[in-house]
Fold this sequence. Notes:
Layout: H1 7-10, E1 21-28, E2 36-37, H2 58-62, E3 68-69, E4 80-89, H3 92-103, E5 106-112, E6 115-120, E7 122-125, E8 130-144, E9 147-160, E10 166-177, H4 192-195, H5 198-238, H6 241-246, H7 266-292, H8 301-312, H9 314-327, H10 333-362, H11 370-399, H12 424-431, H13 433-451, H14 459-486, H15 492-518, H16 524-562
Parallel strand pairs: 8-10
Antiparallel strand pairs: 1-2, 1-3, 1-5, 4-10, 5-6, 7-8, 8-9
Helix pairs in contact: 5-13, 5-14, 7-8, 7-9, 7-10, 7-14, 7-16, 9-10, 9-11, 10-11, 10-16, 12-14, 12-15, 13-14, 13-15, 14-15, 14-16, 15-16
Amino acid sequence: xxxxxxxxxxxxxxxxxxxxxxxxxxxxxxxxxxxxxxxxxxxxxxxxxxxxxxxxxxxxxxxxxxxxxxxxxxxxxxxxxxxxxxxxxxxxxxxxxxxxxxxxxxxxxxxxxxxxxxxxxxxxxxxxxxxxxxxxxxxxxxxxxxxxxxxxxxxxxxxxxxxxxxxxxxxxxxxxxxxxxxxxxxxxxxxxxxxxxxxxxxxxxxxxxxxxxxxxxxxxxxxxxxxxxxxxxxxxxxxxxxxxxxxxxxxxxxxxxxxxxxxxxxxxxxxxxxxxxxxxxxxxxxxxxxxxxxxxxxxxxxxxxxxxxxxxxxxxxxxxxxxxxxxxxxxxxxxxxxxxxxxxxxxxxxxxxxxxxxxxxxxxxxxxxxxxxxxxxxxxxxxxxxxxxxxxxxxxxxxxxxxxxxxxxxxxxxxxxxxxxxxxxxxxxxxxxxxxxxxxxxxxxxxxxxxxxxxxxxxxxxxxxxxxxxxxxxxxxxxxxxxxxxxxxxxxxxxxxxxxxxxxxxxxxxxxxxxxxxxxxxxxxxxxxxxxxxxxxxxxxxxxxxxxxxxxxxxxxxxxxxxxxxx
Length: 567
C-alpha cells in the first residue's frame, strides 16, 4: 500500500491503484483564515490503516495546511456503493462541538490528488429550530485516461443532532470518464466572470490614461519651468555684481549648496532604500514567474517561490543600501548592513509571531510549528545575511563615491518661512492620493482572493497595475520635490520617500473599509489576523513606493543641478 504514495507526485494511476483522500482543515465560512485540523471536530476516520504522514513543504506549514489521512478506501476506476465507514455516539462533548460548528457555518476542506474539495458540516432548519449534520459523502470522480481531472462532492443524508443519538458516516464513489484535459483541470476553480469583469478592464484603461496625462504634465512642467529658470540664471551671469546683489534670486538654485547634504539619520534611510529596492525586484520577479508557470495550481507554490526569490535577491538590497550609505559618508557600514538585511524579515516574522500566539491559544491549524520557525531563521542568517554582505561590499566599492554636481556648503542655510501647503507634511499627505487612485480597484481583487474563496490568477493584470503604480509614483514625487525645492527647502530625501510611501497609508485605510463593508469576519483571531497581515502588506507596499519615489527623484535632482552654472 505504501507504493500508492508515489503517484500523487506524477498524478498517473494504474487501474485499482489506491487513491488517497487527505483531510485538511475545518473552520467557519466567513473567516477564511480561522482553520482547525479536520479531526478536531468529533468526525471519525475510516477503517483503513494510516499510510504514514504527508510530508509538507515549508510554505504549506506557514499557510497552515494540515493533511491527515481520511482512512477511506478509494481505488482508481473502482466504483464503491454506499458503505458505512465509522460510527460515533453523541455524548455531551461531541454534541456541543457539532452544534457550535453547525451554528457557525463550518466548512471542511479535503484534497484528492491535489485537487481541493469543499463540503459543509451541517445545516440549520429554521422551521423546527433544530440542527442537522450531513453524514453521507458522495464522490464523483472524473478521469481522463490514467489521470484524475475532476472531483465533486455531494453531501447527503442529514442526521439530527440529539444527545445520545448514534450517527453512522457513509461514503460512496462513482467514477466517470471525462473530456477535461489534465492541464485544464484547475479551470473550474477559477472565476473569470469576477476577475475579467468589464470594470477590471476599465480600471486598467483608466489608470493607463492617468499615467499618460501625468507623464505629459511632468515633462511639460520640467521643460517649461526649467527652461525659464535656466534662462533667468544665465541672464544673471551677464549682469554686474552690484545689480546681482540687489536682484532677487529665488527658487531651487538657491539651495544648490545644501541639496546634496546627507539625509537625517542616513543609516535608517539607506536601509529602507535597500530593502525597498529588493522588495520591488521580488514582486516583479514573482509576478512574472506566476504569469509564466501557473503557480496557483500547486498548494503553497506561490509562497515557496516568494521565499526563494527573496533570499536569492539579497545582494540587491546590499548594493543599493550600501552604496547610498557610502555616498552619505556613513561610518558604521556593518551596522547599516545588519539593519538592512533584517528589516523586512523582522517585520514579517514579528507580526507572524504575534498572530501565532493567538493561533496557539485557539489551537488553530494556522499555528506555525517550531521547526518551521527555526527553518525561516536559518534562511535569514545563513543565506540572506552573507549575500547581503556581498552586495554591500560591491555597492560601497562600485557606487560609493559622492561625486555630486554641486559642492555641499559647510554651514546649512536657514530654511525660509513658506506657505502652509508647501510644508513637507502636507506634501507627504497629498503625494499618496494619485498612486492610490491608480491601484485601488486592483486592491479589491487582490483582497478578495486572499480573504475570500477566490483563486487569483490574472497576474498579467497585476503586472500592468504594478508598473502603472511605479510610474505614477515617480511622476507625483518629482512634482512634489520640485515645489519643495522652489520653496528653498532642501530636505527632499525623506519628503520624497514619504510622499510616495503615503500611498500605503491610504491602502491601509481602504482595508478598514473592506473589513467592515465587504466581509463578515468576526472573532479575535480572524480580526487580528486580518489587520496584522494587512499592516505588513501596507508597509511592504510603502517601502516599494517610497524607494521608487526616492530613486526617481534623486535622478531628477541630479539632472537639474548638474546643468546649473555655479560660480
